[in-house]
Backbone:
């Protein structure tokens, strides 16, 4: 169990703790952040790698001020979620997270948002989810397209590890490769968001995902670094405009 650096009430957001029990009796922990007003929609957020939801919820807490309930969980082995981090099990857990939100009586107009590792997990999860018909849109922020390729990219940026990039990259399972799954996200609306300033995920990942995705799909380019995308007000406006258009098309 890793401590939380901050809780939503410390920044004026009303929230509840949520718990999911998995098939192997692992308890996953998450938060529901309440919209300030009557909700116009619901967001399920899959966070990036490292630390826990207390450091990642800063990417989405501001959506509560715009009328969105936000749901976010820690993967097993992260934060207050039990177990050890394991990609096979995390992928299964992602479906449980989707189901937990879909089955809540107070939820409608669900948008799944994933960022970095969370975006790549979300692409596979939504593509294969039994709840796909309940999901209005998938927003992928700074996703990588392939586990092998992103590992190689990261290793190649370190002079110490450059020589070992090929063998090390193939020790990472590619069973859940986002680029192989993204074509099955349709008919869910897919928005790919990628910063041209991203120092970790190269642009070719977004371009490859866009090419393999089916309609409806779009790629929107952003500014700012990998870990500070939604610190940027302009990037927030891009996401809000997409969500508003999505809601207006439903009405």
Residues:
């Amino acid at each position: 169990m890793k401590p939380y650096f901050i809780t939503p009430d410390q920044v004026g957001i009303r929230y509840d703790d949520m718990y999911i029990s998995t098939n192997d009796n692992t308890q996953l922990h998450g938060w529901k952040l309440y919209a300030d007003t009557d909700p116009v929609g619901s967001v399920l957020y899959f966070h990036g790698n490292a630390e826990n939801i207390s450091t990642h919820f800063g990417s989405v807490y501001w959506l509560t001020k715009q009328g969105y309930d936000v749901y976010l969980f820690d993967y097993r082995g992260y934060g207050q979620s039990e177990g050890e981090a394991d990609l096979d099990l995390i992928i299964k857990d992602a479906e449980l997270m989707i189901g937990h939100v879909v089955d809540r009586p107070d939820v409608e107009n669900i948008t799944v948002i994933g960022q970095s590792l969370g975006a790549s997990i979300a692409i596979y999860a939504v593509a294969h989810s039994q709840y796909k018909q309940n999901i209005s849109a998938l927003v992928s922020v700074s996703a990588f397209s392939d586990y092998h390729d992103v590992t190689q990219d990261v290793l190649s940026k370190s002079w110490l590890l450059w020589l070992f990039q090929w063998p090390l990259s193939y020790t990472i399972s590619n069973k859940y490769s986002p680029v192989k799954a993204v074509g099955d996200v349709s008919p869910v609306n897919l928005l790919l968001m990628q910063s041209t300033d991203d120092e970790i995920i190269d642009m070719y990942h977004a371009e490859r995902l866009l090419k393999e995705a089916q309609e409806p799909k779009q790629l929107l380019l952003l500014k700012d670094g990998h870990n500070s995308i939604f610190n940027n007000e302009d990037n927030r406006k891009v996401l809000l405009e997409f969500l508003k258009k999505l809601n207006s098309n439903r009405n």
